[in-house]
Amino acid sequence: MKKLAFEISINSAKERVWETMLSHGSYEQWVAASWPNTTYEGEWKEGSTIKFIGEDQSGTLAEIDELKPYEYISALHKAVLNPGGVEDRDSDVAKGWIGTTESYSFTQNNGQTDVTVEINTKPEWEKMFSDGWPKALSALKALCEGNNIA
């Protein structure tokens, strides 16, 4: 597994950043900067299952391992979702994805919120995350600070 980390400072309270990052409507806006037409199904709740899906219902299935409101979320990916939302745990792609973890940390300092996204994944997924997360975090920052997403 390879550990990746992405950080951004946002001029907003961590409660606003948290809500903007996780609420359906705003989630779909900021995530579209890197992964267009992506949404989620499920709840941001410890122990719950959440699906990150595109228009054809393909994506990933994860379990929220840990959640401390306004501070920290950790998710463990457990399956790939093929078009139509069919769970796949057996293909080579699925086996390369299962076990990927991602966490989000929110730390407030002097009116700013530092957001850190950490991913532990197989090397074949590094480019997708390295290309995507900086753009997505910039879009999140723009939403939280009341600016238009570029």
3D architecture notes:
The structure is a single chain. Helices cover 28% and strands 41% of the residues. The chain is globular. Strands 1, 2, 3, 4, 5, 6, 7 and 8 form an eight-stranded antiparallel β-sheet that branches. The chain has four helices and eight strands; from the N terminus they run E-H-H-E-E-E-E-E-H-E-E-H. With 150 residues, it is an alpha+beta fold. A hairpin with a 2-residue loop joins strand 7 and strand 8.
Task: Characterize this entry briefly.
The protein has 150 residues and is α+β, with helices and mostly antiparallel strands. It has 4 helices and 8 strands, in the order βααβββββαββα.
Distance between the termini: 32 Å
How many strand units? 8
Low-confidence region ranges: none
**SS summary, helix count:** 4
Please write the string of helix (H) and strand (E) elements: EHHEEEEEHEEH
Proportion of beta-strand residues: 35-45%
> Largest sheet at a glance?
8 strands, antiparallel
State mean pLDDT (0 to 100 scale): 94
Topology:
Elements: E1 2-10, H1 14-22, H2 24-31, E2 39-42, E3 49-53, E4 59-68, E5 72-82, E6 86-88, H3 92-97, E7 101-109, E8 112-121, H4 126-144
